[in-house]
Amino acid sequence: MHMAVIGGWATGKTALLKMFRSLAEESGCFVCELISPVTESSSVFVSTLSNTIADDLKRKGEVSRIKQITDKLQKIDNVNAFGFGAGISQASYSLSSPQFDLHIGLRTVWEHISSRYKAIVLLIDDFDIMTEDPKKLKEVMLTLRNSLMGAIDDGVKITTVVTGSDLFSKFESAHGPLIRFFEPYELTNLKFDDARLALTEPLESVQLYFTEEVIEKILKLTQGQPYYIQEFGYVLCDNASNGEVNLELFKSIYNKILHDLARKMWHQRLQIMGENSIKLIYIIAKGQNTSEGITSRAHSLFQMNKGTLRSALSRLQHTGIIYRVARGEYELSDNLFGEYIANFYSERFEEHND
What we know:
It is built from 16 helices and nine strands. The protein has 354 residues and is an alpha/beta fold. Strands 2-3-4-1-5 form a five-stranded parallel sheet, with helices on both faces. It has a two-stranded parallel ribbon with strand order 6-7. The protein has a two-stranded antiparallel ribbon with strand order 8-9. The chain is globular, with a radius of gyration of 24 Å.
């Protein structure tokens, strides 16, 4: 079985991968886990995956098996290095392909580790951030799928789990080959009653009380995202006064919670997001969510032209940060992230306009 875990920010995709890893290793499987490289090239993706597999074998002390795998690969025509230093002749290089490399590489690895491991488990996080081009993303995913199918036909026991916020909707029909191969498993935010229970039930064991105002505030801000609920709960419990968290206390440490979330997860995303995307998030978070309003504000505040604006909007939609609720109308998928951008980028962006 191969799976695609799909969900927005903070829905628990990476945490689920960690759980898969723990269970697989306890069951005697060889586990390889990686974050997708940012690339449009199937060759770069296969190279990153193969090098990670080779490195994991080295870290597990499989020195003799690494040498055996390298020797075997060097004897196979047209196979590229596959992370083990197995070279190919210049004449054969043009005949090699990422799909063939991965297929034969996985088969060769399995031949030499099958006596010690029950299966190979590949865990690939953030597959959708690899490239913003849907066609290129589909090419890479098809390369992975076809390689896995070939390896399985050769007797390799392998399962693969990929994660992403929006893996298929841009390029795949409901019954397309990728969806049939990578069975989708969608993680969604908790429903209101479940989110309320997730927040309040743990308080009973530590004899803490959140006022109703605080509970309503947290549920509205987090939109039922499990990680956010957990973070609010931890910080508020640590700062509770006389066993209670009221609205005054909540307001006094709200910015600290935003800074903690930024440090733990948002800063990394902001670094790869691009300045123009952040500016558009800021505009939408400040209340301008129509095409006309966004265009006007982007021009007046940042002198952003329409071409740049369209490209940034497209990127934000592709990565699931914003979504279109109606023709020419957008909303942020993560209100709390929007609050952070609106609050802490205000001085920087408004000064820019001055």
